């Protein structure tokens, strides 16, 4: 936790004083091993970053005087469209994408997405937010990504995706592509990453018909959780 | 498992016929859902890749006729020097690095590496190999990376690292660096990645004195498990 994300409810009525407990307090006590008087890096959800000076610290709660002065780091100009991975991989990938500055993630269906994944507790709003906050805390960011689920492939690709990719470079990560993934882009990108086992030919056809260019990262097929950080680091 | 890695012991006395059981059989039955007559992608450890035609398949074992004809994908020209992460992160990072084509990994100590990590079962030879094989299976590779442990920071950096970095571009991933991580290199690289919480100033000094150039990937501090795929994808 390189930054503690603070929410409106943490502030004591309109002041610059906050009180936190629970997971964040535990981390401060056990990992930072902070004491009263120490300063911690903090930021307000969706807003500025600054320092919090600990004024009171017990095993029950922590109080800080907070001064916020710096803008959060810039976002990546990308919309990540991800075939819903299995729950464990989803959790890690949400945290990784959030830490790298992705602000819009669309989870889609695919033939090779197991139906049970759509019933996973990892898709509950609170669970998704928890993973995203972990990424923000890691990267000293405050701006929560938006996560949208689209459980029907065909209507999403036909009716909604064309508007999403307008004015963006639309790339489909596909290990069998002939083109290499571009590097160091400074344009807005819509990036589609398939399921374990890959998209089926019908899905590749629908996505290329929609305007996506298949690109690969060398000869190697990467797992979703490696592919997402690798693609983002290469693209931007 | 996009490729089944075969070992010498899997071959029935000197023939092109192999017999496997255990984890690999389970995967073929449950994930590939293969039948007798089907062909699977296989490769011999350290050697060529080809196809295995299933001649016999039960819940106890699988027999294949194997023809090998293709070289494994090229390795990345990198030596990865990694401050020993906590066991869970070590396992995932070994698999990710192996899948991306890293062939030499040196696990080192650092002030912020907890002593207990060096006693972890994740460092046992069999455990390391299991994670590396998972990466090879993912990326359709056959060449096992070499993993070396160096539990003493100072003697390693002073006495061994100078010879390791000779004729390589020596880079130290460091979120506070002023230089950006280079892209698309075609030279041999020695890449050092620090622990969670980062190297302490003394360690940074020792590494830069040894010849390492600190480089960063934007303003964001990434977790080790995101940083490794991100750095490798950006460098090569």
TrEMBL record, chains A, B:
<protein>
    <recommendedName>
        <fullName>Ribosomal RNA small subunit methyltransferase E</fullName>
        <ecNumber>2.1.1.193</ecNumber>
    </recommendedName>
</protein>
<keyword id="KW-0963">Cytoplasm</keyword>
<dbReference type="InterPro" id="IPR029026">
    <property type="entry name" value="tRNA_m1G_MTases_N"/>
</dbReference>
<dbReference type="InterPro" id="IPR029028">
    <property type="entry name" value="Alpha/beta_knot_MTases"/>
</dbReference>
<comment type="similarity">
    <text>Belongs to the RNA methyltransferase RsmE family.</text>
</comment>
<comment type="function">
    <text>Specifically methylates the N3 position of the uracil ring of uridine 1498 (m3U1498) in 16S rRNA. Acts on the fully assembled 30S ribosomal subunit.</text>
</comment>
<keyword id="KW-0698">rRNA processing</keyword>
<keyword id="KW-0489">Methyltransferase</keyword>
<keyword id="KW-0808">Transferase</keyword>
<dbReference type="InterPro" id="IPR006700">
    <property type="entry name" value="RsmE"/>
</dbReference>
<dbReference type="Pfam" id="PF04452">
    <property type="entry name" value="Methyltrans_RNA"/>
</dbReference>
<keyword id="KW-0949">S-adenosyl-L-methionine</keyword>
<dbReference type="GO" id="GO:0070475">
    <property type="term" value="P:rRNA base methylation"/>
</dbReference>
<dbReference type="GO" id="GO:0005737">
    <property type="term" value="C:cytoplasm"/>
</dbReference>
<dbReference type="InterPro" id="IPR046886">
    <property type="entry name" value="RsmE_MTase_dom"/>
</dbReference>
<dbReference type="GO" id="GO:0070042">
    <property type="term" value="F:rRNA (uridine-N3-)-methyltransferase activity"/>
</dbReference>
<feature type="domain" description="Ribosomal RNA small subunit methyltransferase E methyltransferase">
    <location>
        <begin position="75"/>
        <end position="234"/>
    </location>
</feature>
